[in-house]
Amino acid sequence: MLFLRLSRIAIGAAVLFALLCAFVAPCAAAERVPIVITVLPSARHVDAEALRDAVSRDLGVEVLAPDDPAASSVALVITVGEDEARGELAVARRNGDNVLIRRVAIPRDVQELQQAAVFLIGNIARDEAWDLVGAIRPRPVEPPAPEPTKVTHAPAPKRLWLGVSAEGNLAFMPSGDDACLLNASAISVSGFVCMRDGRDYPALPAVDPAGAENQRIVPGKSDEVSGGLVFGNARFSLSADYAMSDDFLLGVRAGYTSATYPGQRVAPFGHLSLEARGTYLIGSQPLAHAGTSFAIAFGAGVAETSAHVSVTVLETGVDGGTRAEAWRIAGPWFVAAGTGVRFAPTDSTALIVLPLRYLRVRQRWDARLVRTGNRDADRIRLNERAASGHAQVMRLLRSPS
Fold first, then answer.
1. Which domains, from first to last, does the chain contain?
2. pTM (2 d.p.)
């Protein structure tokens, strides 16, 4: 009787052990089944080796490459690729004839792309583990599926910017003698033209046909220009810039030039200022958000570039000489380049400061500004140089839709 009871106890223990092996051991094994991850050539932004290491740490399983000798015996294969036409990252799970594909939009940041791939592989691999356990025992009721992961894209650049700008010129004034003296044809021999008391000096032929005022100037004795940097024009403009990318602006400026030549001896260009300009910004997506970035600007346009200095002119019969202004006039064509910074306190407001902008000004040939009498030589000689300080305030008008 005792032997019969002991036998029943032994048989019950054996059955219980068998059941535990049937339910627990396969589940543990399922959780540790190795997987193979294949990264397709289309996934050119995904680091395959780093991805396998990250998934191995996340799932706690061995992750094999497709060329691993042991990969041929693994049933669970996961493939990663990028569908550039649809802008999606795709992860496919194949186990025999069963295929499951999950997709998300491709993040713009490479690190976020790698994290998204790890997340999708972990999600799809855990589904496979549940399938293996479900073959042994009924699958429990699953909680509602979580909301799809929202991939945050990098902010797009702001497109159309309107602004106002101010600029002050420093002109490189050349040296010269007899700045106000004219030759017998009433043409400047120095490349300068002079003004005195708000009028052309010496007087124009219409006012002084005989050139008496010019004849009173003592040559080689006065009206000498020393040369150097002098203050020139100031420009005030309205601007419109379009963001061609998240770090490059292309725009135009139109405005007013102050302190232009007031006389009539040389036909002035006037107060109009026009410029086309490109601005390249160095930084991490500087047009997409607030912050400070380095700016390189280059442009071309039309505007008068002029400056003047005070000279003393000795005249026959006049004691102490006469004070006059010697003007140097260049333009209208110019090219310019400069560097500075762009400071954006918000994502829709910015200030660009170019503390030093170099201008190369093309002087149109004018028969009344002749030194050598050779037109080609005068074209070369009358290429002027100037420097300027520039500040521009910009406001976003329209973002991309």
1. 29-134 (3.30.160), 160-398 (2.40.160.20)
2. 0.57
